[in-house]
């Protein structure tokens, strides 16, 4: 049977979800991510005085998630105009929220880290399961409003809001075991890798990212989209695609496709921090010149072409291979050979 309106069965937006007009399309998903893997985070906005939740957010009283009308009311009340600069974009469909939570297998008692909660669509879905949520939000207005919205919709729910840049946090309360987030697409890869590097308590999760970036994260060696994010993600664990997300469930309507990426961390770290840094330096060099043979692309890191050939030969890697043909274990073998030869 042909899916209605192009959606897979069960993934249709809730009744009442409508796409934004053309004037509303300049949001987080409006511009594709550049091929660069590590864009810088944007500057933090100035503080804004806290406000109370609008009365409309409480109707109907039985609702436990925000709908399109409540989300737009909150945004208008706060003076929030979704911007590309902060990567702001809001999910307005409850079915999609619950789908993400289900894919992430969030259970009562879990402590979940959410980055970029925005107006709270996904936050409420996570709290609905009985989990605790630690939310990191860079926007003052959104960070101050979120507890008010949660208290209105889920009184007494266990929520902690951290007003900070996700690329700068060094401590998280509750040792979150899962990461579930609609990541800002302009910094999705750096944020994901930063959190996995600094917070070993995160064992699994689901993130929503731009489809092109998500496919790279989950790509196997030899794939056309295999690259630096693929190798670095594999250092921490296994990544897989977990379903596409319709553009119509967002406000503003995105200009690119979105995808869910699920991951599970390795039971034990692949190697030491010293070897991780050395491996990532090799990965960066290899994919900066991905069309070149490794003995050339790695020459700047390993000394010169001759030294690179010697190191790779000791590691059991053919110097004429290219970066997209190597697994994370192959790059690690080169790093081991490099450090042992010092």
Automatic annotation (TrEMBL):
It catalyses: adenosine(1518)/adenosine(1519) in 16S rRNA + 4 S-adenosyl-L-methionine = N(6)-dimethyladenosine(1518)/N(6)-dimethyladenosine(1519) in 16S rRNA + 4 S-adenosyl-L-homocysteine + 4 H(+). S-adenosyl-L-methionine binds at residues 89, 91, 116, 137, 165, 182. It is found in: Cytoplasm. Residues 44-59 have a biased composition (Low complexity). GO terms for molecular function: 16S rRNA (adenine(1518)-N(6)/adenine(1519)-N(6))-dimethyltransferase activity; RNA binding. Residues 1-59 are annotated as: Disordered. Gene3D superfamilies: Ribosomal RNA adenine dimethylase-like, domain 2 (1.10.8.100), Vaccinia Virus protein VP39 (3.40.50.150). Residues 96-267 form the Ribosomal RNA adenine methylase transferase N-terminal domain. Coiled coil: none annotated. InterPro entries: KsgA/Erm, rRNA_Ade_diMease-like_C, rRNA_Ade_Mease_Trfase_CS, rRNA_Ade_methylase_Trfase_N, rRNA_adenine_dimethylase, SAM-dependent_MTases_sf. Keywords: Cytoplasm, Methyltransferase, RNA-binding, rRNA processing, S-adenosyl-L-methionine, Transferase. GO terms for cellular component: cytosol. Its EC number is 2.1.1.182. PANTHER family: DIMETHYLADENOSINE TRANSFERASE (PTHR11727), DIMETHYLADENOSINE TRANSFERASE-RELATED (PTHR11727:SF7). Belongs to the class I-like SAM-binding methyltransferase superfamily. rRNA adenine N(6)-methyltransferase family. RsmA subfamily. Specifically dimethylates two adjacent adenosines (A1518 and A1519) in the loop of a conserved hairpin near the 3'-end of 16S rRNA in the 30S particle. May play a critical role in biogenesis of 30S subunits. This is Ribosomal RNA small subunit methyltransferase A. It comes from Cryobacterium cheniae.
